[in-house]
User: Fold this.
Amino acid sequence: MDMPISGETILIWPLLLTGFTVGVCGGFFGIGGAFMVTPTLNIFGFPMAYAIGTDMCHMIGKSIVSSFRHWKLGHVEVKLALFMVIGTVPGVEAGAQTIMWLDRRGIAGPVVRYVYMAILLSLGFYLLWEVAQAYKKARTEGVVIKDVFGNRLTRFVQRTRLSPVAKLEKSGITLSVWWMILIGAATGYLASFMGVGGGFIRVPALLYVIGLPMKLAVGTDLFSIIFTSAYGGFSYAVKGVVEINAAVIMVVGAAIGAQIGSIATRYVHGLKMRLYFALCVFGSAFGLIAKQISTVYRDQWMAGVRAFLAEGGRTALEIAEAIKDKIFIQSLLAGRPEWSALAGKEQFWTSLAGVLSIGLASGLSFIIMYFCFKGILVEKRTGKILGA
Amino acid sequence: MLEWYSELVVWAHKNDRWIFALITVLTMTGVGIFFGLLADVLFRLTGIDFNKYTDQYK
Assistant:
């Protein structure tokens, strides 16, 4: 199918399948799934800017479908989501300003990647530790633990009732509105700083700062993603880097996947969801580590190419133009086996990062589909709701 | 209909990015709402009430 905006020709079924897979994961974990979609679209042949813009737009439709289902299941704290959105906008702008400041010093790329990796790995380990503690307690005390509710930080936040305060309808938590706005701003800042949708940051913030149960954190985050992705999608569309036909095809796949992912949350208790969320976080972190390693190899051979061109008397502007010319670069690499080897290693780690993202999304979506269909079959046969 | 829509999108992308952005966001919102409601209707056929609460958090 021809894409009218970018001029690329893309097959429909990979787009449908990508939308479906990420829809399943998004509906279950409350994430937009940009870390999975963007590299996948890039592999399909979309230029990076179009991949990000198209992903952001398809997220609008997907989050509407998922949050509608979660709302029906009683998993959305509407007030909290809306107050968080108020804080998100200035947070996103502040994050973008920080990136521009770092970019002017030429250190934006590595700083972002290292901060992102540190956050993802610490989150993943904390989630695993918490789940292990809960299972240990369940074994020793012989009780069934469905989810973990709060910690010291949560208790501090819930006790600090700076006026105005709002009572959250589903969880029964009473919380200062300022905390909701502050969390929106902080997560928006981090999401913008790291160039991600924010689900990976917001869901843990809702769990560990506000003390929401896992299912409510997922539903509430998806509801707030409607507004943040609409803002982001609009912004990318104004810049012209959205392939609307591809976004529509992906939304069709995502709409079906998101229903399955959202319904699966009905049959899995919160603790198990945390465990799989930790796997998702780790997968994303390892993908990022692979990407970082590929960048190290790229920097090495690129430094050689730059030095070679500079020795040939080219100006900085001419070097920058020459580097963009893929055929010229390939001919240079062909004549230098050491650069060619480094470029090969770069390609290997880049592909590994992509395979990790796609493999993780596919594996998790199979598990989630299993939970969903098993739950529906058991409920149809026995009337019993698994995980409830 | 689809051809007309594609032409409109390409025209908006070339001539007015704000209209293009508006069409994009409205299209995605429309598709999301359509599929959300469609699924709700289809789920009724399964005989399971997917709209009831499964957990009590308070």
